[in-house]
């Protein structure tokens, strides 16, 4: 009986995964089409999901570059987003550390294939997940690249220290306080009474 239950659960999970996958695929199709069209319009062709592994200062690093074009020495990272406005894209880059990812991949590609062109150039490709599926190619400024590189190098140092000492510090406990947003909202509510 337990084998039958196990088979039933497996079938149920399989059906749910297939349904979820079908739903996700249906939502992903127009997004993928928009990105494909944008790449074709720009004549961009390269190696998709290009895996890189390198060692920096004794730290093993790895990543998967979404699209690498060895001939032009450029790489592209695809990011989905609800709102492709300039301010939202910058917010996402900073919030999710995409500038640090950029620095890591630029370092890895350069260390694996140092050539006369210097550091590889990267761009983010942001695509909206709803119609009209706007696609924006977004290089980062030298200032943002430098900030990402500084954060990346700090992360490598911290990782090396943790590996060396086998000590993995967390963020620690804290007492939660209302956020500045919540305080402003309460003040606005009080003023509007």
What does this structure look like?
This protein is α+β, with helices and mostly antiparallel strands and 193 residues long. The chain has 5 helices and 5 strands, in the order αβββααββαα. The chain has helices at 2-42, 86-96, 98-112, 142-165, 180-191, and strands at 47-56, 59-69, 74-81, 121-128, 135-138. A 5-stranded mixed beta sheet has the order 1-2-3-4-5. A hairpin with a 6-residue loop joins β4 (121-128) and β5 (135-138). α3 (98-112) packs across α4 (142-165). The termini are far apart. The mean pLDDT is 87.
The general outline is globular
From the structure provided, what is the oligomeric state, counting identical versus distinct chains? single chain
Low-confidence stretches: none
Helix-strand pattern, N to C? HEEEHHEEHH
State the share of residues found in helices, binned by percent: 40-55%
Major beta sheet, strand line-up:
1-2-3-4-5
Number of strands: 5
User: What is the percentage of strand-forming residues?
Assistant: 15-25%
């Amino acid at each position: 009986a337990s084998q039958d239950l196990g088979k039933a659960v497996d079938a149920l999970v399989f059906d749910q995964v297939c349904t979820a996958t079908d739903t996700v695929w249906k939502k992903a199709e127009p997004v993928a089409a928009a990105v494909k069209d944008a790449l074709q319009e720009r004549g961009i062709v390269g190696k998709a999901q290009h895996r890189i592994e390198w060692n920096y200062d004794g730290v093993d690093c790895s990543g998967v570059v979404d699209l690498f074009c060895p001939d032009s020495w450029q790489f592209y990272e695809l990011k989905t987003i609800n709102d492709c406005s300039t301010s939202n894209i910058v917010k996402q880059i900073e919030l999710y550390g995409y500038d640090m990812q950029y620095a890591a991949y630029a370092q890895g590609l350069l260390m694996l294939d140092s050539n006369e062109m210097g550091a590889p150039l990267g761009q983010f490709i942001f695509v909206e997940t709803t119609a009209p599926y706007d696609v924006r190619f977004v290089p980062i400024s030298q200032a943002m690249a430098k900030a990402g590189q500084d954060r990346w190098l700090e992360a490598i140092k911290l990782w090396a220290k943790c590996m060396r000492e086998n000590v993995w510090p967390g963020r620690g406990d804290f007492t939660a306080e209302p956020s500045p947003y919540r305080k402003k909202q309460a003040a606005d509510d009080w003023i509007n009474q």
